[in-house]
Amino acid sequence: xxxxxxxxxxxxxxxxxxxxxxxxxxxxxxSLGKLFLLLTVLLVLLRNSxxxxxxxxxxxxxxxxxxxxxxxxxxxxLLWTTGPxxxxxxxxxxxxxxxxxxxxxxxxxxxxxxxxxxxxFLGFQxxxxxxxxxxxxxxxxxxxSGKHAKEFFAxxxxxxxxxxxxxxxxxxxWHLKALAPNRxxxxxxxxxxxxxxxxxxxxxxxxxxxLVGLTMVGLAVFWALPRRYRLASIVMTPLIPxxxxxxxxxxxxxxxxxxxxSSYMDKPAAxxxxxxxxxxxxxxLEAMAQKPLAGSGVGSWTTEYNKIxxxxxxxxxxxxxxxxxxxxxxLWGVQLGVGGxxxxxxxxxxxxxxxxxxxxxxxxxxxxxxxxxxVSCLFNSSLYDANIGSFFCLSIGVMLAYGLYAGNTSHx
Length: 412
Known about the structure:
Elements: H1 2-22, H2 27-47, H3 63-76, H4 85-95, H5 100-107, H6 111-136, H7 149-152, H8 159-176, H9 183-203, H10 207-224, H11 230-236, H12 239-244, H13 250-266, H14 273-290, H15 301-312, H16 328-336, H17 338-356, H18 360-379, H19 386-405
């Protein structure tokens, strides 16, 4: 009987480890990691439907509760959605990745397991980071499967996704270095953090990733200063972008963004990256204004956008591929109304609050992830996106579990 229980634990921990390792890797790897994770937690819940599941301290967290409420809201909106059935179900499935967070909290049951999951997560992020630098220096990387790996140095996904991931990884290593058991790992964490931040500003050209990187630096400076100087640091934070403008590809990319905004002001339908985003955002606000309370339902963004554009121009060629406005808050607003925007804000606030209960290094690392998510969602539909959305869910889940069991003095 003891051996059977041991095997069960090993399988459970192996599935958690697989999911932690998959974050930021290929879409196939992350899909398999999430699938096995959700199937495993389903089996665990069915087997233990009448008794406690491991330690139940995770039930005091707000994040799992908000995830259930949000998924119930999206599922309920199927009753009034204006989108076609296939797009509705696809959207529900995309937001289903949020279940990864409570799944990790249920399956990770001890300090040892939480430490193992975090170690594997950080180890594979280091592997991903070093692979990008190898590509940057034109060293062959046979496992790189990204469509533009040789051109933009993103190993498995896009330069946009990997630049955001690198900025988050820089923050994680920087704050978690305080937990290093020896000086070698302490300085190693600093080196990896600087290497990750360097990749954001020198290797990748993603503007959102660079904004996230600046945010991570600003938060690190804020927390590093004594409390009496933190107000001054908030005033000084705007100086960081000015300094950063002298580095890497930042000037060129943001000058291009400025010219694209100018082009949009002259011609609202300007066919540029920034112009398209601004037009999508404007149309999304129009769609929200039409149904501000309940929204148009899950998966309805494309349908509502096409309706509005068709009224403006009968010859408008309807979208068949685009499914989001490249802004998560507006996407939720179109689908669930103002309540959807509030739900997204509540989710981010809940994660922040849960991390705030934990020891400072873990709290700061976790809150940095949330700050990165907020910035990303302002310019992209990051939770809706299959790749970067999965990374954020996995990273939040792993860090919450670690903080709960290994980084929260009240639970030791």
